[in-house]
């Protein structure tokens, strides 16, 4: 179902979605375009609103739409970890009426499964580290921000330019 | 029982106190049952009014400070009303909506009704939460799943001609020097930490000019502590409120001047 498709990660390169949405950006030297200024709230709000409007049984069985309290909690979570330098996450509905919030880059992955307010299961994987920590979080998300800083380091465009 | 180390005032400038919890939508509850909830409290709160619901709020912590801009609410087409169940004197009220229960005390009329103090309010709120939980358990086997607690003290620290008042006489954190501001609107937030240094709640302090019900202007100093209880139970929520009360009373004493304390009769 198209409306349930994962919200694609925001590409922080001049060849990605950002460049296509920002006229003139494609002409900037690659290094100056390393950090794309984006307003994450608008796209996240649109995505959460879409998921709240899913019909009951959107998976063909008895899946619930995203609940209002889980949507507001997910937004509160993102508000303390996101800034303009971090990539936009994919936001995927779960059959129980909640969401998974995911970031996938060349350097690693961060996945958060919001079970309900104050109950989040978090998983992290990074190319530099053998261990893949999994933790249960409540309302303190400093560790998520640190993980995002670790996986955002590589820029696809710069890698390509250097190749 | 009042902790012995808390600052105490004979005539505190408190104008309103709110104790509240937010919980997950109870199974089996629909808006048509709101009258049954009023029935739990009608004996002491015989008047009822309807208002727009409060949006869910969650305090979260990380490197970014949450901004008003991202504290947006969603409308999914199934919003329930918020009800005020008011006492005969209208100085105490219960606010109820599908996911909230709050108890307010406030000054009314000429402002001479005396603050009943925290402990009796706390006991009443405990009884109200227990009654609501018992009622909801009669709909489906369940307990309240409390996900946020909130305690607020709103203090009117000066009443009269606001333009002539020197705020630094009353507040330690405001000094305009020779500037005579037309209006005042300040706020700050503080993360409250536990003994391990981890975030446990957030204090929100707001200072602004208000019009009182008697028509006088006042400077309102509002202190709110909000956050998640350790568990979703009523006992945990009550513990959060008791801890929040201690934080607020201590901060109030720190933010206000010793001259003001004399006027309010600090013991």
Outline of this structure?
The complex is a heterodimer of chains A (163) and B (267). Chain A is 30% helix and 20% strand.
* Average pLDDT figure of chain A: 77
For the sheet with most strands of chain B, the description reads: 9 strands, antiparallel
Largest sheet of chain A: 5 strands, antiparallel
Beta percentage of chain B is 25-35%
* Structure class of chain A: alpha+beta
Order of helices and strands of chain A: HHHEEEEEHH
Structure description:
The complex is a heterodimer of chains A (163) and B (267). By secondary structure, chain A is an alpha+beta fold. Chain A has one domain (4-162). Chain A is built from five helices and five strands, in the order αααβββββαα. Chain A has helices at 17-21, 40-52, 68-81, 142-151, 156-162, and strands at residues 90-93, 99-105, 108-116, 119-126, 134-137. In chain A, α2 (40-52) packs antiparallel against α3 (68-81). Chain A starts with 16 loop residues before the first helix and ends with a helix. Chain B is of the alpha+beta class and 267 residues long. Chain B has one domain. Helices cover 22% and strands 30% of the residues of chain B. Chain B is built from four helices and nine strands; from the N terminus they run βαββββαββββαα. The interface between A and B is medium-sized, with 32 and 29 residues.
Keywords:
heterodimer; A: 163 residues; alpha+beta; 5-stranded antiparallel beta sheet; B: alpha+beta; 4 helices; 30% strand
Q: Topology, please?
A:
The complex is a heterodimer of chains A (163) and B (267).
Chain A lengths: L16 H5 L18 H13 L15 H14 L8 E4 L5 E7 L2 E9 L2 E8 L7 E4 L4 H10 L4 H7 L1
Antiparallel strand pairs in A: 1-2, 2-3, 3-4, 4-5
Helix pairs in contact in A: 2-3
Chain B lengths: L13 E10 L10 H8 L5 E5 L30 E5 L5 E6 L2 E7 L11 H22 L6 E14 L25 E9 L5 E13 L5 E11 L6 H22 L2 H6 L4
Antiparallel strand pairs in B: 1-5, 1-6, 2-3, 3-4, 4-5, 6-9, 7-8, 8-9
């Amino acid at each position: 179902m198209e409306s349930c498709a994962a919200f694609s990660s925001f590409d922080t390169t001049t060849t990605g979605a950002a460049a296509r949405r920002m006229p003139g950006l494609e002409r900037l030297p690659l290094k100056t375009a390393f950090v794309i200024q984006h307003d994450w709230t608008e796209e996240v709000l649109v995505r959460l609103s879409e998921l709240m409007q899913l019909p009951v049984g959107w998976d063909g069985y008895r899946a619930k739409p995203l609940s209002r309290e889980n949507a507001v909690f997910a937004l509160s979570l993102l508000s303390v970890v996101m800034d303009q330098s971090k990539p936009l996450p994919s936001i995927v509905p779960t059959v129980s009426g909640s969401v998974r919030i995911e970031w996938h880059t060349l350097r690693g992955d961060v996945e958060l499964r919001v079970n309900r307010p104050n109950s989040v299961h978090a998983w992290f994987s990074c190319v530099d580290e053998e261990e893949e920590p999994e933790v249960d979080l409540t309302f303190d998300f400093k560790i998520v921000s640190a993980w995002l800083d670790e996986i955002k380091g590589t820029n696809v465009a710069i890698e390509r330019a250097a190749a | 029982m009042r902790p012995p180390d808390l600052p105490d005032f004979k005539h505190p400038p408190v104008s309103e106190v709110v104790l509240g919890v937010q919980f997950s939508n109870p199974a089996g509850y629909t808006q048509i049952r709101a009258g049954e909830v009023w029935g739990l409290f009608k004996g002491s709160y015989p008047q009822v009014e309807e208002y727009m619901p409060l949006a869910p709020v969650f305090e979260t912590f990380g490197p970014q400070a949450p901004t008003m801009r991202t504290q947006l609410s969603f409308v999914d087409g199934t919003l329930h009303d918020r009800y005020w169940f008011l006492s005969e004197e209208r100085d105490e009220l219960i606010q109820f909506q599908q996911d909230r229960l709050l108890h307010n005390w406030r000054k009314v009329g000429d402002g001479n009704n005396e603050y009943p103090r925290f402990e009796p309010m706390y006991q009443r709120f405990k009884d109200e939460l227990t009654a609501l939980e018992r009622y909801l358990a009669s709909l489906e086997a369940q307990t309240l799943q409390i996900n946020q607690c909130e305690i607020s003290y709103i203090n009117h620290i000066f009443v009269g001609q606001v333009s002539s008042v020197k705020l630094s006489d009353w507040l330690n954190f405001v000094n305009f020097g020779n500037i005579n501001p037309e209006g005042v609107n300040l706020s700050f937030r503080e993360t409250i930490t536990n003994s391990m240094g981890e975030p446990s709640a957030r204090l929100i302090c707001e200072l602004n000019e208000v019009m009182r019900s008697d028509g006088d202007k006042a400077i309102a100093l509002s202190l709110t502590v909000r956050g998640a209880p350790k568990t979703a139970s009523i006992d945990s929520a009550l513990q959060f409120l008791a801890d929040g009360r201690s934080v607020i009373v201590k901060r109030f004493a720190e933010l206000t001047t010793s001259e003001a304390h004399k006027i309010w009769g600090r013991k």
